[in-house]
Amino acid sequence: MSEPSLLAELTSWASELDVEDAPERVLAHLRSQLLSQLASARAGYGHPLGAKIGQAYGSPLQDDPERSAHSLAMATICLDFDDTAYAGHLSHSCVNVPLVYAGPLGLDGRRLATAILAANECAARITAAATLGPFRGQTAGHTHLAGAVAGRLRAEGALPDTWVNALGLAFTTPTWTLPRGFFTTDAKLCTAAVPVRIGLSACDGAKAGLSGPADVLEHAQGFLHRFAALPLPEEAVGGLGTLWYTETLSYKVHPGSAYLSAAIDCAAELHAEIRELGADGVAEVVVEGSLFTSGLDRLTRSESVGPHSSVAALNFSVPYNVATALLTGSLEPADLAPPDVARPERWALAAKVRTVHDPALSRAALLATAPLGQALRRAGQRAAGWAGAAGREAVDALPPDWLAPADDFRWATKDLGARVTVRLHDGRELRAERRTALGAAGSTDGPGHEELARRKFLRCGGKPEVVELVGNLAELDAEEVVRLVELALGDLGEGVTSRRVQTARPAPASFDAGAAERRSTRLRKPEVMWDTAGLEAAYDGLFRAAASRVGVGSEVDGGAGADLDRTLAHLALSDRLLADIARQVLDGAEAPVLDNSAAADPAAIDALVAAADRAVLVELVRRNAAELVGLLARTPDRCRAADVRVRLVNGAGVELFSGSVPWGEVVRMRADEQLPGHAARINSLEEQAR
Fold first, then answer.
1. How far apart are CA 108 and CA 565, in angstroms?
2. Which of 114, 130, 233, 517 is surrounded by the most beta carbons within 10 Å?
3. Closest Cα partner for 202 from 214, 211, 192, 193?
4. Secondary structure element (H or E) that encloses residue 451, with its range
5. Could you say which residues of the chain have pLDDT below 50?
6. What DSSP string describes 647-658?
7. 449 within 8 A of 427, measured Cβ to Cβ
8. How is the beta sheet containing 429-434 ordered, strand by strand?
9. From the CB of residue 604, how many other CB atoms can be counted at a distance below 10 Å?
């Protein structure tokens, strides 16, 4: 028998997916994603551009949910205030579609969260499979073909065959974004809205019996071969149920491209030091960034951006956004509209901003999970060909081809860093730098994503009661979901026809009541699983220590730097061994052998240090740690008692211990003793370097 198509495999899993199948940390991201997206909607409709959207396409709450989804997608994309994931700007379909269907379908909070989760996972995976191609970020309209189909059909409880046909129909006519309109005009608004309409139309057709090609993704004449320079079909189905793309989300605290977020953070940090000087006191502003930032700047400088430019052009302008944050200490939706956008001082300072490529920041960006790191690792040796076509900057920044892709995203990263230097007429230089933007995946600075999403929503005029409702999302009944939607969106799009959300319409014909009953009564997590909280906390401490000594502004070098590199190499090798044991225990192997000689051997450590620079070593530690913790999280707690034959040696090869140890004790020592000890050692290295 032939293997199932990518769509058949993906939809067989997604159509049965329940939010309770995902860890709590993933549900936390769903809550933040929903709240942040509602904030984006409020900001979008509150902008003059949003008023035009409402006039043309109606409010976010109309009798026709398809039209509501179209309007809402335009409003949430219009200020570039949306959140990003590896891979894709998911929420314009993955949140918006379940949200507008929640009332008509009578969804309770659990079903709403489940629909968003299923949409996220399908859309991100298909987007990732084509991410090494011409379209990424908001230009990848195909993200919303998958998000619209999955979000609606999971909400309706449709059968897998309906999913396959709907996705087959939708991906036969994917949209192709042209840069001419996207970067300079309001045409950008269509990049999510049009695919959403195509996806919802495909759902109608599939439910009525229309068929689509099940192999539309992988076929030689199908989507991936036309939309990807380097197709990665494994990304679509790898790690189903264990690799949660939802937890790669990064949250924007400023409207604008994610490629500019760190630079805006730096500029806002410097505001207090130049507040009294103003634009006249500044001689020059230098923004150093990765190839993503410098490339965007080259692209947008080919157009003349000024006070009368479109919102899209303003969103992508490094000079305007950095100048505004320097002068005001922030960047808000109001800064993209009159009267603020026309203030002469901003444009006078913007004229003094130039952007420089920093190879080290590019290296960090391509090592991180998003926007491309996971895809490059999946591609392995094939990535060199893709990078060659992308340019010299990409080739030089490529991660080593032996660095394996992550199989657990709990420590996903998005390191699009920046450095901003302000040179004053009096000769002083002011500087701020960030490896990661505030709110980006993996950021160790500032509040967590829950707090950032809450602040964003309230800042955009949202009601505190909505925050409370979203905080209890999975426990809400259908009436409470309706109240959430009304409170969050009911006052938007004034002057256009809107409606009061209705609930509990009859389930659509494709709704599989039997499957829904099976899902609601099946036994979940019948066995107590391993609690990894202590181990995760220990790794968090280690990563914070490493982040402060590695990358932007790192001063650890010389002998202390060599010690740091060797420590990181030892950690990476040790976690590799522990992950192998964890897999054997999970598989029921009898008395697996843990011999640390490969991780303690100076020759092995030196070989790894020679093969990998410090940034790669940190990423390797993070990747191996995530694999270990991910395996343990899937291991029954009773396996703590499993015997492991342990042999420990020192760096000279002298045996220190040999005997049988319970696996739970091995992990406890890792969490309570070894990792804190290594973190303390890393923290001490900077003092040694001084």
1. 51
2. 130
3. 211
4. helix 449-459
5. 495-525, 552-553
6. EEE-TT--EEEE
7. no
8. 353-357, 282-289, 418-424, 429-434
9. 15
Dihedral sign from CA coordinates of 289, 294, 296, 301: positive
Report yes or no: 398 and 518 within 8 Å, Cβ to Cβ: no
| Beta bridge partners of residue 647, listed in sequence order | 595, 658
Residue owning tokens 């420990």: 648
pLDDT cut 90: percent of the chain above it: 84
Angle at 655 between CA 651 and CA 656, to 5 degrees: 90
Contact indicator for 426, 419 with CB cutoff of 8 Å: no
Q: Can you give the pLDDT at residue 388?
A: 87
Rg (CA), the chain: 25
Amino acid letter, 226: R
Q: With 0-12 CB in 10 A as exposed, 13-18 as middle and 19+ as buried, what is 302? A: exposed
Q: Locate tokens 């899993």: which residue?
A: 13
- Number of helices (H) and strands (E), helices first, in the chain? 33, 7
CA torsion, points 550, 552, 555, 561, in degrees to nearest 10?
A: 30
What CA–CA distance (Å, rounded) separates 288 from 290? 7
| Helix 160-170 vs helix 190-207: crossing angle, to nearest 10 | 130
Strand partners, 356: 288
Nearest to 255 by CA among 50, 467, 7, 403: 50
471 and 454 in contact (C-beta within 8 Å)?
A: no
C-alpha 677: how far from chain center: 31
pLDDT score recorded for residue 579: 96
Structure tokens at 498: 């809107």
Distance, CA of 253 to CA of 331 (rounded, Å): 9
C-alpha to C-alpha distance for 423 and 71, rounded to whole angstroms? 44
CA–CA separation, 313 and 302 (whole Å): 11
Owner of token pair 């505030």: 438
Tell me the pLDDT tens digit for each residue of 511-555: 444 444 444 444 444 689 999 999 999 999 999 888 776 654 455
The answer to whether 440 touches 254, Cβ cutoff 8 Å, is no
Residues 37-54, buried b or exposed e (16+ Cβ, 10 A)? bbbbbbbbbbbebbeebb
Strands 429-434 and 418-424, by their bridges, are antiparallel
pLDDT of residue 510: 41
Cβ atoms of residues 40 and 81 within 8 Å: yes
Q: Of how many residues is the chain composed?
A: 690
- Closest of 613, 616, 608, 618 to residue 547, by C-alpha: 618
Residue 509: left if φ>0, alpha if ψ -120 to 50, beta else—which one?
alpha
Please name the amino acid found at residue 640. Answer: R
How does pLDDT run across 280-312, given as a tens digit for each residue?
999 999 999 999 999 999 988 888 899 999 999
Long-range contacts of 210-214 (CB under 8 A, 24+ apart): 210/165, 210/169, 211/165, 211/168, 211/169, 212/164, 212/165, 212/166, 212/167, 212/168, 212/169, 212/170, 212/171, 212/172, 213/168, 213/172, 214/5, 214/7, 214/8, 214/164, 214/165, 214/168
Amino acid identity for residue 44 in this structure = G
Residue type at position 388: G
DSSP letters, 525-579, are --SPBP--HHHHHHHHHHHHHHHTTSSTT----HHHHHHHHHHHHHHHHHHHHHH
Residue type, 543: F
Q: Which residues have CB under 8 Å from 375's CB, separation 6+?
A: 87, 128, 131, 132, 232, 235
CA pair distance 145, 155, nearest whole angstrom: 16
β-bridge pairing 418-424 and 282-289: antiparallel
In the numeric block, which tokens belong to residue 77? 């994309």
| DSSP 8-state class, residue 166 | H
- Starting at the edge strand found earlier in the chain, the sheet holding 655-662 runs 593-595, 643-649, 655-662
